[in-house]
Specification:
mainly alpha; 3 helices; 75% helix; 0% strand
C-alpha cells in the first residue's frame, strides 16, 4: 500500500524509485555483505534501543531535574515510546523491503517450497 503523491513529486521521484528497484532486484547476499549488514544493523539496534533511551533517562534526571511523580511517569513514557517506535520502524522496514524485493523479482505468489508432501 502506497500513499498517493502529488504529480510533480511523483514525476521527480520516479527515477529514484526505479533505481532503487533495480538495486533491490539485483542485490545478492554474500557472506561478506551479510556480515557487514548484520554488524551495522546490530549497531543501529543497540543505539536506538539502549543508548539513546538510557541517555535520555539520565538527562531527564540530572539536567532537567524531573524528580516528581508525574515527571518520572512522563520520562518513562517518552523512553518507552522511543523504544517501541523504533522497534516498529525496524519491523515495518524489513517487511516492506521483502515485499518490494518479491514484487520486483516477480515472485509474489506462493512462498512455500514446492514438491514433497504437503
Amino acid at each position: 500500500m502506497s500513499l498517493p503523491l502529488p504529480p510533480k513529486l511523483e514525476k521527480r521521484l520516479t527515477p529514484a524509485f526505479r533505481r532503487a528497484e533495480l538495486i533491490i532486484r539485483d542485490w545478492e547476499w554474500t557472506w561478506t555483505k551479510a556480515g557487514i549488514f548484520g554488524l551495522l544493523f546490530g549497531f543501529a539496534i543497540l543505539v536506538t534501543q539502549a543508548i539513546v533511551p538510557s541517555w535520555f533517562l539520565y538527562f531527564a534526571n540530572q539536567k532537567l531535574r524531573w524528580t516528581t511523580f508525574w515527571l518520572l511517569i512522563l520520562r518513562d513514557a517518552i523512553a518507552t515510546g522511543w523504544i517501541g517506535t523504533w522497534f516498529a520502524i525496524f519491523l515495518i522496514i524489513s517487511a516492506q523491503m521483502q515485499n518490494i524485493r518479491r514484487k520486483v523479482r516477480g515472485t509474489t505468489g506462493d512462498t512455500r517450497p514446492t514438491g514433497g508432501y504437503r
